[in-house]
UniProtKB/TrEMBL annotation:
One Pfam family this sequence matches: TruD
Name of the protein: tRNA pseudouridine synthase D
Region (Disordered): 231-251
Record-annotated active site: 93 (nucleophile)
Species of the source: Halovibrio salipaludis
Catalysis: reaction(s): uridine(13) in tRNA = pseudouridine(13) in tRNA
């Protein structure tokens, strides 16, 4: 129960751990990110080619100051369709300049009018047609270009640590943004009634909170593997081809044998969270314990540095950078 402390409210828990141990030791310096939206650039890479035909427009937009759900609702209004009919592969932060793909149902005869209306609100980078809605997770990954300002770090030490990370990777934690400010999503999840979650509408409404629960449990398990020194080792019973950890489901973890017993014993320390996953009949999944950035570059410019790298889908850029630097998020500064 290392990641929490008791609360007096309804026997639940608060004081959620939101910072997890680094694999490479203490950070080599400090800095600030997202001082300006242009400091945090994200370009989505689908990793596949559109069909070139079909009832859906596939549009790559450049946006800043707008989160993904807000843009999706705006596209739905333009297209005159339900918001649920607009597709995207992953959510992106609004405190960034992001280049992201969206799909929307649009017969060919309406395409010009729809694109004109979309172009009035966002920069349209590319357009194609596709046979079906773009679904969450349908991407290869994201390319990041991130400027760290007010940098205080030895230049040689920073370059060496960055090279080591590029060579070996880091723990594949979920980023703090998944849990809300000060763990608000976890606190809200702890207040959910498992019985109400058996209703489909209530379950759908609570999707973000349930995702935060599973992500936090994964981070806690990964921190334990890091402390044990075996987070890079494949353990017997792991169904994946590289070391993985549990995205817990309905009293299940996706592993077998002794590993499954260990993971479920760990999950048993959090009965209030496991009750939520049981009520929703959540299917288990696995997530890699290690995250390795690809095609890495570093430019140091006075008291700032620019990190350029690619991450596979599901990886958090902030997790990569906080492995080597103690960072303040400028977008969260009052």
């Amino acid at each position: 129960m290392s990641g929490r402390k008791p609360s007096q409210r309804r026997g639940l828990v608060t004081g959620w751990r939101l910072d997890w141990p680094r694999a490479g030791g203490e950070p080599v310096g400090t800095g600030r990110i997202r001082v300006d939206p242009g400091d945090f650039g994200v370009t989505e890479n689908l990793g596949w080619s559109p069909d070139g035909e079909g009832e859906h427009l596939l549009i790559q937009l450049e946006k800043s100051g707008d989160n993904t759900d807000w843009v999706a609702r705006g596209l739905a209004r333009v297209c005159g369709c339900p918001a649920a009919a607009v597709g995207y592969a992953g959510r992106k932060d609004r405190h960034a300049v992001t280049r992201q793909w969206f799909s929307l149902p649009c017969p060919p005869g309406r395409a010009d009018d729809v694109l004109q209306a979309v172009s009035a609100q966002w920069r349209v980078l590319s357009v194609d047609r596709h046979s079906r809605k773009l679904r969450t997770g349908e991407l290869a990954g994201n390319r990041f270009r991130i400027r760290v300002r007010d940098l205080e770090a030895d230049s040689a030490a920073l370059a060496a640590r960055w090279q080591a990370l590029a060579n070996s990777g880091c723990p594949n934690y979920f980023g703090r943004q998944r849990f809300g400010r000060d763990g608000a999503n976890l606190e809200a999840a702890a207040q959910l009634d498992p019985q109400r979650l058996k209703r489909p509408r209530e379950r759908a409404r609570s999707g973000m909170l349930l995702s935060a629960v599973r992500s936090w449990l994964f981070n806690e398990w990964l921190a334990g593997r890091l402390a044990a020194g075996d987070w890079r080792q494949q353990r017997e019973g792991d169904p994946e081809t590289s070391p993985s950890g549990p995205m817990f489901g309905d009293d299940s973890c996706g592993a077998e044998g002794a590993l499954a017993e260990a993971e479920l014993a760990f999950a048993g320390q959090y009965p209030e969270f496991m009750a939520l996953l049981r009520a929703t009949r959540m299917r288990p999944a696995r997530r890699s314990l290690a995250l390795k950035p690809l095609d890495c570059a570093l430019e140091q410019e006075g008291d700032s540095a620019v990190f350029d790298f690619f991450l596979p889908a599901g990886g958090f850029a902030t997790v990569v950078l906080t492995e080597i630097l103690d960072l303040e998020d400028g977008s969260r500064t009052p």
